[in-house]
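#structure-requests
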Amino acid sequence: MSARMRTTVTLPADLLAHARAAAPSGNLSAYIEHALRAQQLRDAAPAVRAWREQAANDTEEFADIFGEDVA
């Protein structure tokens, strides 16, 4: 597990109230960590999608050059 650091964020009162109510066992830090990690995945999705499309093109090229058994 990576090192933990304390930080301060300012949130609208209604958003904070929702997060506190939704946090499992009242663990607001864990809830926010989960939300931030989920956002990181959403942010990375376009790059991953582009990489997968390029990988598919590479596989087709390898199959053309070396045959279906290799690719």
